[in-house]
Write a structure and sequence with these properties.
Elements lengths: L1 H14 L1 H29 L11 E8 L4 E3 L6 H8 L3 E8 L4 E5 L2 E5 L2 E4 L3 H5 L3 E3 L11 E5 H8 L8 E4 L3 E9 L12 E4 L3 H5 L12 E7 L5 H5 L2 H9 L3 H4 E7 L3 H4 L12 H28 L1 H13 L4 H38 L10 H27 L3 H5 L9 H34 L9 E5 L6 H13 L4 E7 L10 E5 L11 E7 L4 H4 L6 E2 L18 E9 H7 L3 H4 L3 E5 L7 E10 L14 E4 L8 E6 L5 H14 L8 E2 H8 L1 H35 L1 H9 L4 H35 L8 H4 L1 H26 L3 H5 L3
Parallel strand pairs: 6-11, 8-10, 17-22, 19-21
Antiparallel strand pairs: 1-2, 1-12, 1-13, 3-6, 3-12, 4-5, 4-9, 7-10, 8-11, 9-10, 14-23, 14-24, 15-23, 16-17, 16-20, 18-21, 19-22, 20-21
Helix pairs in contact: 1-13, 2-11, 2-13, 2-23, 11-14, 11-16, 11-23, 13-14, 16-23, 16-25, 16-27, 17-21, 23-27, 25-27
């Protein structure tokens, strides 16, 4: 019997090549989309699940309420104190990411971006595989350095790395004590070298590891089995009061994040690396399923539309004794066979496109088609899709009554309504995806074209070495750079535009006592006095601070109050309760020590508009711009004259090599930094566009098949109408009218759905494209779908309409 089912199924598939091809191609595209997205989703969900005791490991994060900071890192004392105060904390480890450092090997300096400073037991805590050396003692000394396999190969090739020495920033000689296996790519961490945290006091000061203001340490806790993270969090406020004072919880708070949730559920300030998004996982899973669903709908539509061709076969089979169950099995078998053909084509498409897709999403996606799990998934997917797509047609065809179909009555009438509903669903989904694509692209265009409040063009930026004396380096570099005719200006700042400004300070206005209750947390940016001219920033009132104020004397116990200058942005002026004009001349104070005994009094020299210093994901912060000092990050911005930048870049590198011989020059254009800010959304837009195109293509395939079938069934009607005087246009309008109405109905369904979801998506941006600017997308997407549908059906209709009436009247 099975052999008979297969022969009948194959005969039916081969006897209807057009409809079979439409079904196979549509299902193959849908299945390939699902396979690729499933690989992506599975990989995203695998992040950080491999660590030892991952289910008991949590990251400590910190919030600052005054300036709305949600930091992924915390101060260095927090981890050890939590372990000390709470027996539920079995262990803890801290990891500092210093950013760009210089390592010198055999006299050759190299810029290293993959070094991490960690607690001495970090290897055991994470369960890292040690290839050479001893895990227990690998980070015991301040001069210890652990390398991953990849890091060791970069520096020493195939030679043994253990015992080799490197110079760190020209200040500390490090010895390689161990080599560990490379980190898997599916982790939110990223490093190829581990230095010991015992080196921190030597490099950054003896009190660095007790500094509650240095929130740069990613801190992980391993909780005792059975410990509730939520219950432990509830005790954090009392922990902060114990160590910071009774008002501590007014300004800051601690939370826990499960390590396995960080990649998809965390989007805090100062994340270790750019995380994924659970919303993207949900979104693209849904889109891939919709593409497959549209292909399944094609199968249902075309199969039920062809029911008149199978009606007599069903009637004869029932008359000679076939049960309904046998007929259902036969039709499901046909569906599964066709799906199997589609799956073979889908696998070929996956093999062709997966490398491109993996490169696009920057994930090492791969599939082993010969593995038992992959084979089981493919077979299971084939059966599932085959049964789903064929279930309604099988039930519909098998319920025909022999007496009716053998008398030639139309057995397909009951399926017309369902076919219309399914066509509406297909096009509603396609239209919604088109609108989503347009909204994402418009938001990207809005972000790139928005007036940021300054001129970021032609700016080359670089980070100055942290350990070099600032003024001894910066002033000669500035003079040497500005001496070149192709360089307009060079200025210093603690951070450059496009970076998150995570620095802040506590300020009070004039005649306000400086207490922890009165202080206002305000973002702080250190800039050269020429910085505002360099970035072409206009002043609302006043001007920049004086050149003489850029090197303000630091307070001392003998001279506890010193004076300086400052520039406020408009939001900062409002925080103090001033208009821009009122702010000029006012004096604000900031503390220079933790005991609130030394202060800097700054006269407000000017007020600038609120500028978009960071990405549009972040709200503009109230910011105090003041003179630079050695306690902040160091960046230099070089404005290049219009024209060919090659000469200016070469001069910059020559000056750098002369003044900073132990650190290779590293630079980037500011425009590139801003492009990177929206890289994720740009990829999302391209993925939306791709899957929207696939959805519309598959839906159009199905519509083409339905149009061909409908036109074929109405051949005699077309001939009669032509004999009665109907023109080609009349016939085309008649045949396209029904489908056009369905597409118009699909618009009415798609528009509110698309508006709801895309309005919600835009909430991730503090500054977003106005609703009226993307309202036209609804009409445009609807018209595009209508045009595609009309052309698809119209081509079939015009072919039939131009045929000779005598051929149509001889039909059947």
């Amino acid at each position: 019997m099975l052999d008979n089912y297969l022969r009948v199924a194959w005969r039916h598939i081969a006897g209807n090549p057009l409809f079979s091809a439409i079904n196979v191609i549509g299902l193959a595209i849908g299945l390939a989309s699902c396979i690729v997205i499933t690989l992506f989703v599975r990989y995203e969900l695998s992040y950080d699940k491999h660590w030892v005791d991952a289910e008991r490991t949590h990251r400590v994060v910190r919030d600052f309420y005054g300036n709305n900071l949600r930091l992924a890192a915390v101060a260095p004392p927090i981890g050890p104190l939590l372990q000390q105060d709470f027996p539920e904390v079995e262990d803890q480890v801290r990891m500092l990411v210093p950013g760009q450092v210089t390592l010198t090997v055999d006299g050759e300096p190299r810029v290293e971006n993959h070094m991490v400073v960690a607690d001495t037991h970090a290897i055991d805590f994470l369960g890292l595989e040690v290839l050479e050396g001893d895990a227990a003692s690998a980070l015991a000394s301040p001069t210890s350095l652990v390398m991953t396999r990849r890091g060791a190969e970069r520096y020493f090739g195939s030679e043994p790395a253990v015992g080799k020495t490197l110079q760190l920033m020209g200040r500390l000689e490090l010895t390689v004590t161990a080599v560990i296996e490379d980190l898997p790519p599916n982790t939110h961490m990223a490093f190829e070298m581990l230095a010991s945290i015992t080196a921190v006091p030597l490099l950054l000061g003896e009190d660095q590891l007790e500094n509650w203001g240095s929130n740069n340490y990613y801190t992980y806790l391993r909780l005792q089995s059975g410990t509730s993270p939520e219950a432990l969090e509830e005790r954090f406020p009392s922990f902060l009061i114990k160590h910071l004072g009774e008002n501590a919880n007014d300004g800051t708070g601690l939370e826990l994040q499960a390590i396995g949730d960080i990649h998809l559920h965390s989007n805090r300030d100062a994340e270790w690396r750019a995380n994924g998004s659970i919303n993207n996982v949900y979104t693209f899973s849904a889109v891939a399923l919709f593409v497959l669903l549209i292909a399944c709908i094609n199968f249902m539509n075309l199969t039920t539309a062809l029911s008149t061709q199978r009606a007599k076969e069903v009637g004869v089979r029932k008359v000679i004794g076939a049960s309904r169950g046998q007929l259902v099995a036969q039709f499901l078998g046909e569906s599964i066979l066709l799906t199997a053909l589609a799956m073979l084509l889908a696998v070929a498409l996956v093999e062709l496109t997966l490398p491109l897709f993996a490169s696009f999403v920057e994930r090492p996606l791969e599939i082993d088609l010969l593995s038992p799990n992959a084979l089981l998934a493919l077979v299971g997917g084939t059966l599932l899709v085959g049964v789903f797509a064929g279930s309604y047609p099988a039930l519909f065809l098998s319920q025909f009554r022999p007496a009716q179909v053998l008398k030639g009555r139309d057995a397909s009438t009951g399926s017309n309504l369902l076919r219309r509903v399914l066509v509406v669903f297909q096009f509603a989904t396609s239209i919604a995806l088109l609108i989503a694509t347009g909204v994402v692209m418009l938001q990207m265009q809005y972000a790139r074209n928005l007036d940021l409040g300054y001129d970021k063009s032609r700016n080359l930026t670089s980070g100055l070495p942290f350990f070099a004396p600032l003024w001894e380096l910066y002033e000669p570099m500035k003079q040497a750079l500005e001496a070149h005719p192709d360089i307009e200006s060079a200025v210093y700042s603690s951070r450059v535009p496009g970076m998150q400004n995570l620095d802040g300070g506590g300020y009070v206005g004039p005649d306000v006592q400086f207490t922890r209750e009165n202080v206002m947390a305000i973002a702080d940016l250190k800039v050269d006095y020429q910085w505002f001219d360099h970035y072409d920033i206009e002043f609302l009132a006043g001007g920049t601070f004086l050149e003489s104020q850029r090197r303000v004397e630091a307070p001392t116990p003998e001279n506890p109050v010193t004076q300086g200058g400052a520039v406020l942005n408009e939001s900062a002026a409002r925080r103090f309760g001033w208009s821009p004009e009122e702010a000029v001349g006012q004096v604000i104070r900031s503390a220079a020590d933790a005991d609130l005994t030394m202060f800097i009094e700054r006269e407000v020299m000017g007020v600038i508009p609120d500028i978009h210093f960071s990405s549009l994901h972040h709200e503009i912060k109230a910011t105090v711009f003041a003179e630079p000092n050695t306690g902040y990050g160091r960046s230099i911005s070089v404005k290049i004259a219009p024209g060919d930048p090659a000469s200016a870049i070469a001069h910059f590198e020559d000056v750098w090599r002369r003044l900073v011989p132990n650190t290779p020059p590293e630079w980037e254009f500011l425009d590139q930094r801003f492009d990177a800010l929206y890289r994720g959304e740009g990829r999302q837009a391209q993925m939306f566009a791709t899957f929207s195109g696939l959805a519309i293509f598959v839906a159009t395939l199905g519509l083409f098949g339905l149009a061909a079938f409908t036109t074929d069934r109405r051949t005699k009607e077309i001939g009669v109408r032509k004999v009665m005087g109907a023109g080609v246009g009349d016939i085309v309008l008649l045949l396209t009218g029904d489908f056009s109405r369905l597409v118009l109905l699909a618009n009415l369904i798609a528009w509110p759905v698309a508006w709801f979801f895309m309005n919600d998506w835009l909430t991730r941006f503090v500054y977003r494209v106005p609703t009226l600017d993307w309202a036209w997308l609804f009409v445009a997407s609807g018209l595009a779908a209508l045009v595609v549908a009309t052309l698809t059906v119209g081509l079939q209709a015009s072919r039939a309409a131009m045929a000779r009436p005598v051929l149509a009247l001889r039909y059947e």
